[in-house]
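thought: fold this chain, then report.
action: predict
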Amino acid sequence: MATLYVDDKVDVTTSARNREVQNVVYRQNSQPCYIVVNPENGNPLSGPVFFETDVEKFLSFLRSGRDSFAEND
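observation:
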């Protein structure tokens, strides 16, 4: 899972890159932004999910990423 931090004052380059991914790829500007990505190629497996307080919805998002990875493995 990738968490895109876009407000880091220490690592401004990474923050800018993450902001660009969030804005250009997902057309969203919300924090936090969670995306399950394939570790082999960086392709998204599920998400993005933004601020989510419902535990079951967040677990469903994580399971979806896990299942997508298993299907593509």
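thought: worth noting. The chain has one domain: 2-72.
final: tokens above.
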